[in-house]
Give the backbone structure.
Amino acid sequence: MGYNAAARVSDVIPDSSNEDMFVALIEAGSFVPFEKFVPFRDELTILESRLDSGDGRVSGLRQNAVRLLSDQDFFRILSRAFDANDAALPRVDLEKPKPEKLIVAEESTSFDHEFVRERVEQTLNRALRDRAFRKIVISAYNETCALTGLKLINGGGRAEVEAAHIRPVAAGGDDSPRNGIALSGTVHWMFDRGLISLSDDLDLLVSRQVNNPDQIWSLANKSRKANPPIDDQLRPHPSFLGWHRDNCFKQ
């Protein structure tokens, strides 16, 4: 018993197939798979305080399949779900908030607890989703750039490949692995700026606006195709690839 993922429940509705049951609807884009399984209890405590029967046992699971979590319980579970030192994710630091996320009051105002809490939740949730997305995508491509076939590991044993969103989250994309592809830094830069794209069959497409397309072709795999992930079920989805060609690719 324990936790494998986190998600935000947007609503709970009656189950049309069973009048005694209910269905929890998950908010789109809120699902975050954990890097490791988190048990209900650790060596010190039961992670959900409401499930603590007081005698060291976990209680109330069957009666409370859907239940509220306190902030303390929520952060306690998350702290155990992600490795602090992960060689596959060298650029993510959840301990240091980005400057643009800090809230600075320029004049004396009353403290808005709900606003601050919402901003903290948004920042944390985005960071955790980014981290989980990178972890899954980089692993799916064996820490190798799909378009160049390069697998570069730095002196600390960390892979330098990046996890690229095909359709950016800011443009309505989600954090599903099928909306991602592993690319080296330069290739990622070209992909985000529409200088290159991919067909549904993962053929490399080079924009006519590129000043020297031969250089790009020389970087690419000899097949002129992106290598698929190890698990074909994580292959980039045609709907995301189509969006990139229609909205980013400079034909």
Observations:
- Residues 113-140 form the longest helix (28 residues).
- The chain has two domains: 1-81, 86-251.
- The chain has five helices and eight strands.
